[in-house]
Amino acid sequence: MKFDKWLNERLDKTKEAGLHRTLRTMNTAPRPEMCIDSQQQIVFSSNNYLGLANNERLVNAAGTVLHEFGVGSSGSRLTTGNSKWHEKLENRIASFKQTEAALLFSSGYLANVGVLSSLPEKGDVLLSDQLNHASIIDGCRLSKAETVIYNHVDMENLEEKLKETGSYQHRFIVTDGVFSMDGTIAPLDKIMSLAKRYDAFVIVDDAHATGVLGENGRGTSEYFGVFPDVVIGTLSKAIGTEGGFVAGSKVFIDFLLNNARTFIYQTAIPPSICAASYAALEIVEHSKEERQLLLSKVKQIKTSLEEIGYTVKGGHTPIIPVIIGDTQKTVTFANRLQEKGIYAPAIRPPTVAKGESRIRLTVTTDHQFKQIDYLLESFNLIGKELNIIK
Ligand code: PMP
């Protein structure tokens, strides 16, 4: 009783601030139109950018291996959890990312935490973009190195911080490739030049860029034609499955296998998921037209919303954040969208800064143009109703 009372008091504060979160139940496979709880909704908030999460080739690939290898991997990779499918997928990821080697983790979150908590040592410094993902922040917190934050994609500020940190032993610049809440692309070409000038290493979390950016979907490295020291990614967004990975040199992967605690002490992902991911990468590399189509939909949505008076961030990635500002108004906006059959949840502090609450839209190759038209029409109506646009 005492325990629950204490927690209820804490939760009440969250509720009073309008920041309480609850779960919704997806009653259909991931696709643009889904049954959520008991209501049909057009979903504009999924990371299934290329529509692969429910792709038949992936489902069949997983199904075949599922029957052969069972549902669980039964142990960590270093004990009984390693299968030929884990190795096949790692080799495939390395060739996709054009690195010597790759290592699977159970999630992108754990890949970030694993790298950042093991690679930098005491006496080193991590220079981290202000808007980096929570898993990078947590990785930095677990690291024995110090962390210095630079302003979001601000290269002058990063250079200042590099000048100020000359006395540290090793320096690491760590950045999202595509920022999950703003949809901005990190200027990786400029970051690489600064790293070269100031003798720093570069770590990129390409969670949202993998499968989306670059001619062959290899991510921000391909988009800018550069090769960072460490590329981290997830299979859970455009690739459509589950799991995280790190791609880099052979010696770095060997280092992680021996030092990253989130690799060593975690049960391996199931072989069936590796097989589905392998099938996904075969598709992703040949999805040039789909990527172009995706980005043309992004452009249509962003331009149309700006034309009717909204402030929209991002621009060249499927993440389209529409800034509403006030938290309560953003929640009301999301509820009104839902009443109209559109699912695009409100993103509020602490996920984003105070006063920057937003509706974070994401678009996928599967969205039909009539669904996009309906979205734009609804934004026009609700925006006027709530006095956000004229
Ligand atoms: N990095 C970024 C930028 C992300 O947006 C996410 C997922 N929200 C992750 C890492 C974590 O990936 P995963 O979902 O595979 O744990």
From TrEMBL:
GO terms for biological process: biotin biosynthetic process. It catalyses: 6-carboxyhexanoyl-[ACP] + L-alanine + H(+) = (8S)-8-amino-7-oxononanoate + holo-[ACP] + CO2. Its EC number is 2.3.1.47. Residues 40-378 form the Aminotransferase class I/classII large domain. GO terms for molecular function: 8-amino-7-oxononanoate synthase activity; pyridoxal phosphate binding. It comes from the Bacteria. Keywords: Biotin biosynthesis, Pyridoxal phosphate, Transferase. CDD domains: KBL_like (cd06454). The modification N6-(pyridoxal phosphate)lysine is found at K237. Pathway: Cofactor biosynthesis; biotin biosynthesis. Its cofactor is pyridoxal 5'-phosphate. PANTHER family: CLASS II AMINOTRANSFERASE/8-AMINO-7-OXONONANOATE SYNTHASE (PTHR13693), LD36009P (PTHR13693:SF3). Catalyzes the decarboxylative condensation of pimeloyl-[acyl-carrier protein] and L-alanine to produce 8-amino-7-oxononanoate (AON), [acyl-carrier protein], and carbon dioxide. Homodimer. Belongs to the class-II pyridoxal-phosphate-dependent aminotransferase family. BioF subfamily. This is 8-amino-7-ketopelargonate synthase. It comes from Domibacillus mangrovi.
